[in-house]
């Protein structure tokens, strides 16, 4: 095994004289140093850091004098237990490299995909059968599921807000690191263990569960990979959980440089108390790979990134080699607005919708606006380029509000729908469709809004949480199923009914051009900067007059002036149904 992987790592010349690999190894071995990612200088440093050889006469695989366990295996014939330190270290390092390749799922030496039929034991196996491997090119093709960069960013925010992390604050920024423009995402969540980080950097694994009645957003085990690789070619993840500091590399550049035949993810754990590296079967070659192929070339620079994570727990993601358009310009515009990230060259031209001018929503090209409505009921603070995002509950930000209920025939649950007029722009309207608190489809035109020949439905926003539907793989749409079509038809009917009810009122202006935009919503809700609870303010309050940081003790309502007081309860579905029935009865 050692001879085989030596040829794989260092080339056929590494085979000892008389080996059966000398005659036929040249056409079967992989490129020198390809899969461990080690250049010759790096390899030498790695070998120097290997554990010392066992003492003379040490039992095979038994404990060494210093308490460490010796490498299992035997020296070749004519080689005693006191073989040179360099030979023993080389064997130890080669075996560690081979373990890393198998552990990470990479083809290990002869028999790798593309080199013909695998011989027994020549590649990663289960039950004696070869495993499927994943080409590094999949990182790029997988990321193409995100047609827009903001949906990729949403994947990273979802990871922070999900109940297994429960971050209170997320910082999004643009930083120059080693002359590279980097997108950074830093949260104060609970962090990850090395094992959990490895699963996050792998495909299809998810351990997310419901906690405190909060359902996780991520369900496919693919969000970080597709999101990060959509934004840039390379990403480093730094995470600490109170006991361990761990760094992991997901890099297309690294995989291209080492001509990897599978997706390799170097991961290195450190002790959080003394910042010493924890020796595992692959920590040494992983560290060398990260220092050789990331933007950090020293261990100290690498460890300094953990200091940017506030507190003892949290995670920080750095993404560089930001995606560029075909004209060579960065896809994201960092220069126009110092407190925002914009989509480059995104036209804000107006378009016609059934003869009515419809302005493209700001959420399409402004990350600040997008983050403001990403969650139906925001539960964490988002700072974009060091300025707090004003998040809002869009269902609580409307005027002339009306409620309805949708009772799907394919589920026993009834769902609340909120309709109202936008207080910002009459030309931005449609349904806001959420799933598990996360926005999936925005400004979806239904009913009379599809072809508003006389301004029907223009300015009206509807809000619904469709937990009974299944989001598409990229969370930018719902699967086009029978249930989805039934839901859209129901929303169309209910929006038409709301519009008819409002237009029947006296002095209602149906034209969106002449109809004034409401200045103040029916209700004003604000989030406490300390406890993150939402508070309903008494009376009519203009949200634009509120301070950027608002606290419960600012509340004029005496009952809700303390953070310890639970949020005000909203009307439950039965109450809404009874209220609606009473209105219909009185009007009849």
TrEMBL record:
UniProt GO MF annotations: ATP hydrolysis activity; zinc ion binding
Domain annotation CW-type: ranges: 519-571
Cellular localisation: Nucleus
Pfam families per record: HATPase_c_3 (PF13589), Morc6_S5 (PF17942), zf-CW (PF07496)
Protein name listed in UniProt: CW-type domain-containing protein
Keyword Metal-binding: yes
Membrane-crossing segments per the record: none
Region (Disordered), start-end ranges: 16-87
GO annotation, cellular component aspect: nucleoplasm
First-listed, main subcellular location of the protein, grouped into a coarse class: nucleus
Keywords (A to Z) from UniProt: Coiled coil, Metal-binding, Nucleus, Zinc, Zinc-finger
